[in-house]
Amino acid sequence: MITIKDIAKATGYGMATVSKALNDYPDISEKTKQIIKQKARELNYIPNNMGRTLVTKSSFTIGVIFEETTDYGIAHPFFSEVLAKIKTTLEQNNYDILLIGKKVGEYVRSYLEHCIQKGVDGVIVVSKIWDKDNYDKLINSKIPMVFIDHEEVNKNCVYTNSYDSIYHAVTYLYEKGHRNIAYIGGELDQIVGKERYEGYVKALEDFNLSIYPRWYLYAEKYSFENAYNAVKKLLTSDVPKPTAIVASGDVMAIGAMKAIKEHGLKVPDDISLIGFDNIRMAAYVSPALTTIAQSFEDLAKNACELLLTQIKNNNATPKKIVVPSTLVERESVKEIK
User: Fold this and answer.
1) 137 touches 110 (CB < 8 A)
2) What residues are paired with 61 via a beta bridge?
3) 20 to 30 A Cα–Cα from 309, which one of 36, 71, 255, 321?
4) pLDDT of 52 higher than 60
5) How much is the pTM?
């Protein structure tokens, strides 16, 4: 098997230089990288993580943390889409991913302890961590990290502009003639939930539309079941019925769709629906769901780039990247004339 030592011998460079060049370290010139990588290809070199770790003091492993409490686990559409893009991006940079939990064997550990035990080079946090003590231990550590879909002070963060996205959704409905617009949202103590709700309220205010407190439908943890129950409760109450509902997640919109149909109403003839995320299922439900599309690829790519930059230079200034969204028009919104 060809090793870094063989490439070093063939090129005349030291083993440390060869290792850094193969892993795109910034302190190696592009010319040197090209020479070393070309020789590696000629020799059919296959990286060996154990050898790389000895030379670079790096495990070439990234820990991924997501705390998903709706029982979908990794099968949750948002997480599965983002994780797939993360995996592809990191593999292109010669990194493996490791899902980090709070339990190692028979022992319960904090996320931080698990990361240290496994020797990960950095951490990607894909959602809000609900266990505050566990969360604080992690963010107060010196492990390079990046947050997706959540904002944290003095940390790398990548997220969609939730406020503008929901404002855009309400504007779209207004332009379609809707004046009675309800909203399904999640926890307001999270930046995502708070900004999406504020975007909804601001749009109603700007268009001088009625704001009924009971038209804010709370669906805990953004789940299908909780959205279904919330809409079912609304439709069986004496509250005026909305002509449209904006859901801050496609999973919730699909739950709402089920409740509307079971009540003997039709989407969009009786109630129009807009979701958020543009998960794959959104295009295949009936009617196909109009939604605000997040770019899973951009979220994952930007997060990985920020993290890899910090791994190579832990003094790099943390950045916040806001990924734009787009409205995908399908079949779940009716124009009211």
Assistant:
1) yes
2) 96
3) 36
4) no
5) 0.79
